[in-house]
Amino acid sequence: MADGGVVVTKLGNAGGAKAPCFGANVQSRKSPGIGARLSTPLDSVRTLQSALQAKAKSEAAYRFYSLWDKVCRDDVLYEAYRRCRINRGAAGVDGETFADIEDYGLASWLQRLKQELRTKSYRCAPLLRVWIPKANGAQRPLGIPTVRDRVAQMAVLLVIGPIFDGDLFPWQYGFREGMDAKMALRRIHYGIADRGAREVVDADLADYFNTIPHGRLLRCVARRIADGTVLAVIRQWLDTPVVERDHTGGETRTTVARDTNRGTPQGGVISPLLANLYFRRFMLAWYLGGHARRLQAEVVNYADDFVLLCRPGMGQEAMVTMRHLMSKLGLTVNEQKTRLVQLPEQRFDFLGYTIGQFYGREGRRYWGTAPSKKAIKRLKDHIHAETTSRWFATTPETRVKELNPMLRGWANYFSQGPVGKIYRHVDDYTARRLRIWLRRRSGKRGTGYRQYPDQYLYEKLGLIRLLPTARGRSNAKV
Question: Distances in Å between the alpha carbon of 230 and those of 122, 235, 277, 279?
Fold first, then answer.
């Protein structure tokens, strides 16, 4: 019997997640709306998580047998709902929203879900597929679970997440408590500036989330979790059908994940943890297999993005070895996006930043980061979309209320390195677009600079400026 009532047994064989959302308080996320790093949990849930994590860390070969009763606890389900509620998100295939649940009565809704989970009669609903535009013009499929399924997934995540977190490598930064994208960027900077990495394998996996093999993934989970109900429910989520609706209201149902035994749906609350667990297999092979030492190459990973930081002359062999290991894991390297970067002559993009050698005052060279051209263009595209003729029926105050969180969220993420000139460029572009929108809304042409001076935009309408926020930011250099 483990501390805190956690039943465990010793395992005989121990073997075996681009640009941010534009919200005001957003952290970098590969797929918006997933992850569990939100506000402080209830004390009882925190106590449970601490007990589970302590037991997992104390013995790497323990398996947890009795977990489902903890998933069904009232405090865990309430905390799971609260976190999902903060994450917001659209309704799933059943159309039920958070507002509907609260109109119905949250306590009754949670008790009904608890009863389904406790009696093991719970069955997940199909995912609703939507398509999210990517930076390259393509579209990324996003599977939206129902609110009920999101809360169930979050409850499982609250219980099993602390168990697995200590097993992940320190250089896996995606969707983990106390870690974020900027920590990954700083690790890369350290590898280049202090450890002398001069060749970087800028790697990309083809459709990583949708190609993870179910059997191998579940073995990764079962290495720690022996509770059959938890494993069966995770398998159910992996096999969930997908419903896609067309403009006429027709539906198409597919079962690709179940048919191919591959994939963890982007959009599912549990998916980031499962993706981290499977990527851990590559990290184990890289480090415990001796490749890191032999090639003097460090891996920095965030969700499905990763780079290999190599000493001079080691990059090509590191890339060949990485391809071989990924193939053994059943994953495919995207050859069009994977390249060997030679520093300092070249730069590379990672998590929305461009990394490499830059030039400061008087031509002084330094290793640093800057928001990538793609990230700047995406922001400007969003600003443009919010200041077109389709919004003429709205008020100027409403436009500013839409623009401000977008700008603030972007600046919160892109605050690392010298950003003053970029902030000024974004400020100028935003003001110019808003002035043009105001002029055209009144049926006139022109830039509107004289009619709508800075005082009107920034003081009367309340449009925020990014450049002043940079001066008050310790890690943003103007």
Answer: 12, 9, 16, 21
How many C-alpha atoms does 401 have within 13 Å on its Cβ side?
A: 6
The DSSP annotation for 12-52 comes to: S------PPP--TTPPP-SSTT-----SPPPHHHHHHHHHH
- How many whole angstroms from its chain centre is CA 340? 25
List pLDDT tens digits, range 209-249. Answer: 999 999 999 999 999 999 999 999 999 999 999 999 888 77
Can you tell me the distance from the alpha carbon of 136 to that of 72, in angstroms, rounded to the nearest whole number?
Answer: 43
| DSSP sequence for 41-82 | PPHHHHHHHHHHHHHHHH-TTEEE---HHHHT-HHHHHHHHH
**Within 13 A of 216's CA, how many CA atoms are on the CB side?**
16
The one-letter amino acid at 241: P
CB 132 within 8 A of CB 140: yes
User: In sequence order, what DSSP letters do the residues of 171-187 get, joined into one string?
Assistant: TB-TT-TT--HHHHHHH
Cα–Cα distance measured from residue 403 to residue 438, given in angstroms and rounded to the nearest whole number: 14
On whether the pTM is more than 0.70, the answer is: yes
Q: How crowded is residue 465: how many other Cβ atoms within 10 Å of its Cβ?
A: 18
Residue 145 and residue 268 in contact, taking contact as beta carbons nearer than 8 Å:
yes
* Closest to 349 in 3D by CA, of 371, 365, 376: 371
Q: How many CA atoms does the CB half-sphere of 114 hold within 13 Å?
A: 18
Give the integer Cα–Cα distance in Å for 455 and 40: 40
Tell me the backbone φ, ψ of residue 201, rounded to 5 degrees. -85, 105
| pLDDT given at position 390 | 95
Computed over every residue of the chain, the mean pLDDT equals: 89
E strand map for 65-214: 127-133, 139-144, 199-204
What percentage of the chain carries pLDDT values higher than 90?
A: 78
Q: Strand pairing of 348-350 and 127-133?
A: unpaired
The distance in angstroms from the start CA to the end CA of the chain is: 56
> Burial level of 119, CB count in 10 A (0-12/13-18/19+)?
exposed
* Owner of token pair 């990954």: 184
Distances (CA, A) of 30 to 79, 191, 401: 24, 23, 25
